[in-house]
Design brief:
Helices cover 33% and strands 21% of the residues. By secondary structure, the protein is of the alpha+beta class. The chain has three domains: 103 residues, Bipartite methylase S protein (Helix Hairpins); 146 residues, Alpha-Beta Complex (Adenine-n6-DNA-methyltransferase TaqI, Chain A, domain 2); 149 residues, DNA methylase specificity domains (Adenine-n6-DNA-methyltransferase TaqI, Chain A, domain 2), CATH 3.90.220. It has a four-stranded antiparallel sheet. A four-stranded mixed sheet has the order 9-6-13-10, with no helix packed on it. The protein has a four-stranded antiparallel sheet with strand order 17-24-21-22. Strand 2 and strand 3 form a beta hairpin. Helix 2 crosses helix 5 and helix 8 packs across helix 11. The longest helix has 40 residues.
Amino acid sequence: MHVISAGATMKSFVQPGYKQTEVGVIPEDWDSKVIDEVGFVTSGKRLPLGNSLSDHETSHPYIRVTDMRPGTVSLSDIKYVPDHVYPSIKRYRIFLDDIFISVAGTLGIVGKIPAELDGANLTENADRITSITCSRDYLLHVLMSPLIQNTIESLQTVGAQPKLALTRIRKFAIPLPPTKAEQEAIAEALSDTDALIESLEQLITKKRRLKQGAMQELLSPRDGWIEKQLGNTATLKARIGWQGLTTAEYLETGDYYLVTGTDFKGGYIDWDHCPCVEESRYKQDKNIQLKPHDVLVTKDGTIGKVALVDHLNKPATLNSGVFVIRPIDGAFHPDFFYYLLCSSIFSEFLAQLSAGSTINHLYQKDFVTFNYRIPPTIEEQKSIASTLSDMDAEITTLETKLGKTRQLKQGMMHNLLTGRIRLI
């Protein structure tokens, strides 16, 4: 296999060897066709009134939109059609060579079914594309691409229940390479990238579970651990209300960050999307000027979200919805305390505070009563925090790789599905 590049993008003219079509600029030997020309689109079927689905297999599985995932179907929540209903809806089935597309609720979820669901009945909120004459997997990737997904997004009616008409789907225009071999080569390249993305997602999920297990093991109190109370061992500071900071003062750029609860991401601060404030607002309160290793907790809205200030690119302060917690006279290692707050020990404390009611504010008078137990030495606390921090760093590295792989796939889709790069 070798790669032929189309070279520079078209600006004011169509490059030799390419043509302008309804789907954009594509190679001269490619076609622009509508779905009706490469397959047959038909709808699913609503269950007859008065018939419920079963959790246990009785006849045939029934695929709902809630079971659909981009590219495939989740097997975990599949329901089954009762025996007495199946004969009346058995014509509305989907098979391994078909493609489904959701047409109500969440529009445009596209995929193929796993072997376990071959011949499953399909909900009326999804359509099937059957009798596909081009490469099924190539068509699947085109339907999942921005070319079609952006079209679907533009068809949604604001303020109404989203619905995608079967006639619309039939007229979706797609770029089509001249041979199945080229179509399948494109599909294979994109599927390989999908497989890498899926493997990274699964690995991240596994690493997160391992970290949760490690936190349970490392943070559970042992003999010799010391019990302390937050009010006696730490200062809690937040922007006080009389300072009157409003969202109108939030800036997109500036020399001073303003950290809000919405900037917490994965236990740290998402500095790339953090708003800024004027210098006067930063200097207004020294108590909330952030430092490395500060522990932050949200006290308004979604209470009890936790973040650690692991680094500072420039000076930062807080809005009124966040506490900053600092140890008094080295009462605890802040990184260890951060992980303690990320654990079930703190979530159980918050649950006791709510006592069955919905609380939307964490009062300092309540927070200071938080009792916790820690290792007697700072060295042991640092060791535990370091172990968990290393696990966080590994997860962050994988998440960065996942993000880059997703960006790579977007670039591949653009180049491969327009013929800018050809695999022949």
